[in-house]
Amino acid sequence: MKIDHVTIRQLKMRMKSPFVTSFGSVQDKQFLIVEVKDENGLTGYGEGVAFEVPWYTEETMKTSWHILEDFLVPMVLHKEIGHPSEISQLFRSIRRNNMAKAAIETAIWDLYAKQNNLSLAKALGGSRNAIEVGISIGIQPTISDLYEKIDFALKEGYKRIKVKIKPGLDISLIRAIRNRYPDIPLMADANSSYTLEDYPLLKELDQYNLLMIEQPLAADDILEHAKLQQQIQTPICLDESICSYDDAKTAIELGSCGVINIKYARVGGLTEAKRIHDLCKENNIKVWCGGMLEAGVGRAHAIALTTLSNFALPGDTAGSKHYWDEDIIEPEVEVNDGYIQIPNEPGIGYRINYPVLERYTVKQNEYK
Questions:
Q1: pTM of whole model > 0.70?
Q2: Any idea which residues carry the catalytic annotation?
Q3: Do both 127 and 274 map to the same domain?
Q4: What is the C-alpha to C-alpha distance for residues 245 and 1, in angstroms, rounded to an integer?
């Protein structure tokens, strides 16, 4: 394929309610949509999911735009590309900036699938017709508010509940949830809020039968997670620590985790995400697909990725209506009794709702 035209859009969409974690709160989500067009006018779409503040990784929405505009777009524009898997190698000279890379790499995967009349799931090698879905619930103002969110999620059929914890809001929170919901599939996400010195507290979580505790220690740590995993029964899930295949390989060899959360944006795109998936499958490490509060395009790419065989645990790909009054795709992503059906149409399988896309676009540049 040859990329003839690239468009970068900056969108601003208001979430239904603030999403609160240990490191900050988001309600007005600003993000990027990247469109790549071939010489025949066929278009692929990707989403740049970096936040405005560098609290998850070092990237921000503005740095992603800079890296895309000044480096990545020139690397692909008017170049002959045989297969999307070549893009990660093409971008190797650019250090990290994985969310910027993923924004355009996923758009090229979408274009490739459309050119070959394949669903993106099939193009990636996926085999599922539907995926199980869990839900991530941010820190709530009161325990009653949290119960209300959990009750709604269970009524909707979500297969797993994830709650955020932080120092001072951890054991008591999990105990309260378990007292009210003794049998639900439950996990805790710490977003790097603890240190190895907190081992006694984290050990206490063993009694609550959690599916996993996600990223309890530093975002760039793999070694101390291995030390912690040796001392607790609850499986550790690594998230922020895994930015590449090599990171995953190191974590597996050290015994740092029992589960890995694969976010394609965090690792630089679908190609690297698939490599990590395959590595984990070979080593009996379960994986699941995390979320970045994506709008419809990013959500569609996550859905396609989750059709790969080793995504053994429900991901965070909740339906569009959980986050937005209206999404930028049609049909919107729907969850029915805890499942999302995989679209069979070419590419991501969802159409862009252009009036909505235009309504939320605050900046746009084209590159030819």
A1: yes
A2: 164, 263
A3: yes
A4: 26
